[in-house]
Structures are given as C-alpha cells and as structure tokens.
Amino acid sequence: MERIYLDHAATSPVHPDVFEEMKPYYEAFFGNPSSIHQFGREARRGLDEARDYIAGTIGASFEEIIFTSGGTEADNLAIIGYATAHKDEGNHLVTTKIEHHGVLHAFEYLEKQGFKVTYLEADETGLISSEDVARSLTDNTILVSVMFGNNETGAIQPVKDIGNVLKDHKAVFHTDAVQALGMEALDVNELGVDFLAASGHKINGPNGTGFLYARKGLTFSPMLYGGEQERKRRAGTENVPAIAGMKKALELIISERASRNEEYRKFRELMLGVFNKAGIDYQVNGPESGGLAHILNVSFPDVNVEAMLMNLDLEGVAASSGSACTAGSIDPSHVLTAMFEDERRSHSAIRFSFGYGNTASQVEKAAEIAVKIVRRLSGR
C-alpha cells in the first residue's frame, strides 16, 4: 500500500540536501561554538554563516537573530520575555483567537500574572481586521501579537496594515511566521514587526530548530539562565548541525518558492476537482484564494472527523485536524470555532497540507480515497 503524506503543516520530511549539509557538523566540525580553539571556531563559522543568511532573507541584521529550539520557544521568548520586562509600562496585551497554542498559552500564562489580554475575533474567512486592532489599543497596551499565516486554514493576515497601525503606538508587534517562512516573502521592515518567530521543521529542515527575530534595541527577559550564548538572550549551547540544516532548508525553499506555490495551488484545485466531480458535500474553511498555498482545510458535514482521520490512515493517507483527538473524544478546533458559530463545521474539518515529495497522482488518489470514506461514513 502506498503511503501518502499530506500533513506537511504539522512537520515535513528532511530534504536529502539538508541532511548532507548537517553531517559535517556531527563528524568534523563538532566543537562547541563558544570554544576558542580550532574545533570551536569551525562550529562558530557554521553558526555565523547561518545567522547571516537567515537574517538577510527577512531584512534583518546579524545580531537580531536568536536561535531557539523551535517556533514555540521563539514565541514564548518574545511574548513572555517582553511583557514581563516591561510590565511597569502597561499591563494590556492584544492577540487573536486563532493563534497557535504556542502563542495562546503564553498569553494565558501572562493573564495569570496579572496582565489583561484582548483576544480579537476572526471573520468567516479566518481574517483579522486591522481596524479591530486599532480599536483594541489603549495607553496601557505594550504588545500586540498577530500570526502571519494560519496553520489550520492558511489565511494570511494583514500584518503590514497592522504594522502601520502600530507605527505611532508604544506597543511592540510580534508575529508568528512559522507556517509562512519560505512560502511567502518576509521583510521585517516592510511589515513593521518587532518580533518574528519561525521554525525549521516546516520547510524540510530538522525538528527542534527555530529562530526569533528581535528588533535591535528591544529589551526582554530571557527564558533560560546559564551561559552567555545568543548575546545573553538564550542560554545553552547552540545546536549547530540543526541550525546549518535549517539554513540549507531555507535556501532550498526560497529558490523553489514560485514553483512550489504554483504546484501546491494545482494540488488544491485537483483535490477540490475530485470532490466536485464526485458530488460530495464539503465546505472549504479559510480564504478561497490568496492564502498559504500548501494548506487546504475542508469540512465534510455529518462526517465525524476522528472516524475520517482513522479511515484515511488505514488507507495510507496522513492528514490532520485542528481538533485534538484524545481518548475517543474530540474537541472542536479553536480556530474554526472562532470563525463559525456552527460547531459541526469544526467537528468535521480535515486539514490536507502539501509539501516536498508529493505528486499530483498522490493528491488525486488521496482525494478519491477521501470521497470513498465520506460516502461510507455519511451513508450517501
């Protein structure tokens, strides 16, 4: 049975070229980058080259990049680190109801520390209004966090417009760009963001890698205490092999961005075309066009999402849901719940996400399998 992986928004396979890029840092350049001897200098060279390249891809400077263990740590470092360091300047924070849990749970923690948080609503296409951001601001607002591209629906937020709203306000602007890195052009200065979080494992890099862009001059409290790595902002010996791999992954995906986006849009049209031809009942969650090309979120009314995912898996198709399947029960997606009043929409939603290694024949086959399962489960 052919196994078809359509869950690249969760994690992605490491590209062979990325793996090859990492190997020398395990075998030859294995020194601690903080050491002054030759072994350490060789590792430091790889670390510096990665930092310099990554900074350049987003319009940042070398010293504005902080390597982390992933997007969640980067989000936490920016949100909790900045809020706690500047609590004397205000206790009001703004975010949205559709953020990744790496962001939402950071704000929930801050609420327990006495901060007040405004959670903005999304419309039925999954978009946040910059006008709503403007209306939410007060004299006590010190931080606003709005993700760049949603991990469940692919909706791309008006980050640049929000940056313009905040231009003359004291609040700093954080964006979670984990799903957008490599897929969309990102320039921190054009966007007007002060913090940007990203991860390597969504772009065919290794798990456990990420970075935080922090605009020069901003102060924030570290989350880890120990050595003086990352300019005293993130203690702990850097994972040089994985960071080198993340750099290579970013090089590859940027060089292929246009062709990949075109291919993934064709995959999306192909899958929906199969659904249309079969005449099954479905609803697309998120923008009809203009979102992240690799994400397609679809609800199949009257089909239980847990049963759907299990049947897809039995047929060799890996997909996911924004819902959490635990112990035979399922909680509705917090993203889709924020978008729709009808809970059935979130209880029947499947996210298909495309990536490296997928082919048109795989996508067509997966769509045909999905049609067969929907018919069986809905009794139609």
What descriptive keywords fit this protein?
380 residues; Aspartate Aminotransferase, domain 2; Aspartate Aminotransferase, domain 1; 7-stranded mixed beta sheet; 3-stranded antiparallel beta sheet; 14 helices; 42% helix; globular
Description:
The protein has 380 residues and is of the alpha/beta class. It has 2 domains: 16-254, Type I PLP-dependent aspartate aminotransferase-like (Major domain) (Aspartate Aminotransferase, domain 2, 3-Layer(aba) Sandwich); 257-378, Aspartate Aminotransferase, domain 1 (Alpha-Beta Complex). Helix content is 42%, strand content 15%. It is built from 14 helices and 14 strands. The strands form 4 sheets. Strands 2-8-7-6-5-3-4 form a 7-stranded mixed beta sheet, with helices on both faces. The protein has a 3-stranded antiparallel beta sheet with strand order 9-10-14. Helix 5 (130-136) runs parallel beside helix 6 (159-166), helix 10 (257-278) runs parallel beside helix 14 (360-378) and helix 11 crosses helix 14. It is globular and about 65 Å long. The chain starts with a strand and ends with a helix.
How would a textbook summarize the main sheet? 7 strands, mixed
* Overall CATH class of the largest domain: Alpha Beta
Please report which band the strand proportion falls in: under 5%, 5-15%, 15-25%, 25-35%, 35-45% or over 45%.
15-25%
State the order of secondary-structure elements, H for helix, E for strand: EHHEHEHEHEHEHEEHHHEEHEEEHHEH
Count the helices. How many?
14
Structural class: alpha/beta
First CA to last CA: what distance? 26 Å
Number of discrete domains = 2
* pLDDT averaged residue by residue: 95
How many individual β-strands?
14
What's the gyration radius in Å? 21 Å
Dominant shape: globular
Range of helix content: 40-55%
Query: Based on the structure given, which CATH architecture of the largest domain is correct?
Result: 3-Layer(aba) Sandwich
EC number: 2.8.1.7
Family: Belongs to the class-V pyridoxal-phosphate-dependent aminotransferase family. NifS/IscS subfamily.
Catalytic activity: (sulfur carrier)-H + L-cysteine = (sulfur carrier)-SH + L-alanine
InterPro entries: Aminotrans_V_dom (IPR000192), Aminotrans_V_PyrdxlP_BS (IPR020578), Cysteine_dSase (IPR016454), PyrdxlP-dep_Trfase (IPR015424), PyrdxlP-dep_Trfase_major (IPR015421), PyrdxlP-dep_Trfase_small (IPR015422)
